[in-house]
Amino acid sequence: MKKVIYPGSFNPITYGHVNIVERGLELFDHMVVGIGTSIDKDPNTYLKDRIRLCRESLESFGDRVNVVGFNGLLVDFVKSNDTRFVLRGLRTLTDYDYEFQMLEMNRQIEPSLEYVLLPTSQKWSHLSSTRVREIAALGGDVSPFVPPCVSEYYRDKHAIPD
Ligand code: PNS
Q1: What is the spatial distance between Cα 39 and Cα 54, in angstroms, rounded to a whole number?
Q2: DSSP state of 146
Q3: CA 100 to CA 105: how far, in whole Å?
Q4: Of 9, 129, 133, 151, which residue is the catalytic one?
Q5: Phi-psi region for residue 157, left (φ > 0), alpha (ψ -120 to 50) or beta?
Q6: Which end of the chain is more exposed for a tag (fewer CB within 10 A), N or C?
């Protein structure tokens, strides 16, 4: 059984992420969505909410997808899940630079890591969690960009700060 880790901040999960999960499951049997902490992005805030929203958004994939939070290094999280495969979505050239910096540093720490980088489908290539949070914080409708549970979450005025 081939297992992959799909790490990210998922702050919040968007339809772009859901699309990567769906396509990743064509390549792997099982996926662990790892909600990690980025030192740039106010790591621990609302981790529980991010996990819950991811779980609800991905429940249609059944037991092929697990959603868990992790606090340490990604390389340790990957190893603790008995795999060496990491999945990430790529939207733009800016993503490419950011991604390759992380990827190369992680591979220096753990050379056995193998990355699968999926280009985000064109429909969602403009989409970012940061912009979703901004629209939500200013009272806009984010339902075109995120699963219903996420837009409901923001409607209930629980906007997640960056
Ligand atoms: O969705 P994001 O914000 O691009 O995800 C970033 C994330 C969480 C994947 C990254 O920050 C991460 O791997 N954090 C875990 C801590 C870690 O291993 N840091 C070293 C990165 S080289």
Answers
A1: 20
A2: S
A3: 8
A4: 129
A5: left
A6: N
